[in-house]
Design a protein that fits this description.
By secondary structure, the chain is an alpha+beta fold. The chain contains three helices and seven strands. The strands form two sheets. It has a five-stranded antiparallel β-sheet with strand order 4-5-6-3-7. A hairpin with a 5-residue loop joins β4 and β5.
Length: about 130
């Protein structure tokens, strides 16, 4: 299989397809394939309050998030417009998140500003 990669835009270098996009799409829909998101910046949120804290500031229901379940969440401004988007899953001790290339710095800055008394640690994970 030959990987065809994006040549421009925020996903430059990411795999677009492996030679047969229609078949690959069908396999994705059937749950028989995955998507390489290795080009996306990764961050972690750890600490005993991580899920309740994320639940309070994001659009997703993190309060009942089971380990290993993937989620997509939005951070909304007071007018209800999307300002940040991230995805990820919790492993029972840490929430592992990822966002669009070029969006990690503003997202993590915003998340850090929202930590008041919550017992959470936010870290960039360029090695993951």
């Amino acid at each position: 299989m030959t990987a065809v990669r994006h040549t421009e835009g925020p996903d430059t270098g990411a795999v677009w397809h492996y030679g047969d996009p229609l078949r690959e799409q069908r396999r994705l829909l059937a749950g028989e394939a995955g998507v390489d998101l290795g080009h996306r910046p990764v961050f972690s949120v750890s600490g005993p309050d991580r899920l309740s804290w994320l639940n309070a500031i994001a659009s997703q229901d993190f309060a009942s998030l089971a380990p290993g379940v993937a989620v997509t969440a939005y951070i909304l401004n007071p007018q209800g417009h999307i300002t940040h988007v991230f995805g990820g899953s919790d492993d029972g001790e840490t929430f592992w998140g990822h966002t669009e290339p070029g969006r990690a710095e503003p997202l993590l800055a915003w998340l850090r500003r929202m930590v008041f008394a919550a017992r959470v640690e936010i870290a960039e994970r360029p090695d993951k």
